[in-house]
Amino acid sequence: xxxxxxxxxxxxxxxxxxxxxxxxxxxxxxxxxxxxxxxxxxxxxxxxxxxxxxxxxxxxxxxxxxxxxxxxxxxxxxxxxxxxxxxxxxxxxxxxxxxxxxxxxxxxxxxxxxxxxxxxxxxxxxxxxxxxxxxxxxxxxxxxxxxxxxxxxxxxxxxxxxxxxxxxxxxxxxxxxxxxxxxxxxxxxxxxxxxxxxxxxxxxxxxxxxxxxxxxxxx
Length: 219
Description:
mainly alpha
């Protein structure tokens, strides 16, 4: 099948609508993952062995099951027990919860990378818990987190096509709809790949800038 520029241009607005949903789902998913990941990381540092082990089990369970299965469970199974979510909300929750398990390990690694002497020095100077975290721990813990978190953000963006399995009309969902209705697959699928590539390149440039900027603060 030959490439048809007129057809490609005619479907571009539809695909851009899907790209907007893809970006929205990614941003919201990152917010959910960042918040829940921090909660998981703090719970794993709890002095209670029960809390630590339970949280560890939950994190490993989430990491050990496929994202697609989790999306199906949230969107198709939870309604059977009375919890019904819109498709986009279910997708954001599923991706956020899935990647929160990975963000938690990034948080934990960054926090544990801070030398114990820094914690002891903060206590010796009578800093409050908030002052210790804001002025001592986080400035040293954040820079090592950035590369890993950047990779997970990009991975989440690239996995948004899975949301089409729960009827979210993101970029890939729109492309499949166009292809199924016109029986032309070259143009929509190719444009999807181009869109993902362009956004990924822009994201990598921005994340590298953040890494350099915050890296200076960590030195």
